[in-house]
Amino acid sequence: MQDDFFITLLTGQLPFILIASAVLAMPLSWLLLWRYRKAVSKIMSERASQPTVQFQMQPEIRVKSISKSDNFLLDDASRLRLQFVDRERFSSKPENSLWLKSLKILQRAACVHLFAGSVFALIMASVYLISGIEEIVAMQLIVMGTIFFWPVVLVFNQLTTTAFKRAFVNMMFYFAALLMINSIVLMRNPHMGFADLFVVWATYNLPPTLVLVAFLNRHIRAVGPMVWVFMLAAITGSLLALGLVDASEMLLSVLTQLGATVSFEATGIFAFILVTGFVVFSIGGWLLLKRIGKVYASRIISDQSLVVDSVMLIFAIYYAINIAFEGPIWVLSGVAAFVAYNLIVRQGMKYVAHRSSPVMPLLVLRVFSLGNKSEALFQAITQRWRYLGNVQLIAGPDLAIATIEPHEFLTFLSGRLK
């Protein structure tokens, strides 16, 4: 009886919480980013309208002739050198190309995530087979492992490309591999239908993919994961409060008497319970966001790792929910797979950072007439240079959303953005 309760909780309420929080996070993220951009534009306008400081007198300019005896001025280390690079000259010496070095580091980082994702898929596939049958068959392990590898494809696209066409090609390669595996399965099992494997794929991957589309699209990706975490905590509080009242006759009686005192009907009491749980857990969600902001400010995590972890966590939870039909204990499989993925990525990225060049900041000088192309340019540069160092650029309203960081977003929500 107790197992039935937990199975109902895990397979009923938890999927609703995931979907509802993602659906609510999307419009809320749009609204918050719109307000943030207006606030940034207002601050920049106020600073631009401030009077400039005028010099009371012209500074005296002295020109000194440089002779060969001034060795300290003619030293190579003290000279300012300008190097103009075109495409042909840039590609003629690949060993000196920082861009190619960043590409190699990006490839190493992608390999780390692919290996970690393979372990993630292997764990989920093994647990799926163990929970349903007594022995693991190699072909079944390959089939389910390929199905559970789908979130890794999404992460790979997040890491390696900003172009939709290239991301689409990567996904087509995945589905081509799935189609080839399906052909092998059909040859070995003629009684199966052609669409059976794709129905299983859709059962496990389509709902979380749609959830990701809701709050990880390009326009709100900067704050989508944080807003989703907040809404996840708040909605969990509402349903948990409702469950506690439903499980306690004494608590229900007390609330009924209080409702009668203030002339609340059943609908009013129901709304009060939901709002109370929402508010209480919203405080916990806000504290969690502040913790994420502090960890980000200390450079323990990055905006990219925050997005990647959100993707893998959503799929891990959803996979575990489906396996929990075989027993509530199997829900821990999602936790195990996510933790294994995270540990491998952290250790692997330490190795990548050790093999990479010293940290080098990049100053991007840009024009402000690119419009919507500014964000695409910024993402294309930062996607590769983030493994070499920081990217600095002149801020502007056109990139206010693309360059927002978690601690800055929390500062804006606190009303302390300056």
Quick overview of this protein structure:
This protein is mainly alpha-helical and 418 residues long. The protein is 70% helix and 1% strand. It has a two-stranded parallel sheet with strand order 1-2.
Poorly predicted ranges:
63-74
User: In which order are the strands of the major sheet placed?
Assistant: 1-2
Estimate the helix proportion, in percent. Answer: over 70%
Q: Average pLDDT across residues?
A: 76
What is the domain tally?
Answer: 1
Shape: flat
Number of helices: 15
Instruction: Please give the largest β-sheet.
Output: 2 strands, parallel
Q: H/E element string?
A: HHHHHHHHHHHHHEHEH
Distance between the termini: 56 Å
Strand content: under 5%
Could you say which structural class the secondary elements and strand pairing correspond to?
A: mainly alpha
Number of strands: 2
* Structural Rg: 27 Å
Structural description of this entry:
By secondary structure, this protein is mainly alpha-helical. The protein has one domain. Strand 1, helix 14 and strand 2 form a beta-alpha-beta unit.
Keywords:
418 residues; mainly alpha; two-stranded parallel ribbon; 2 strands
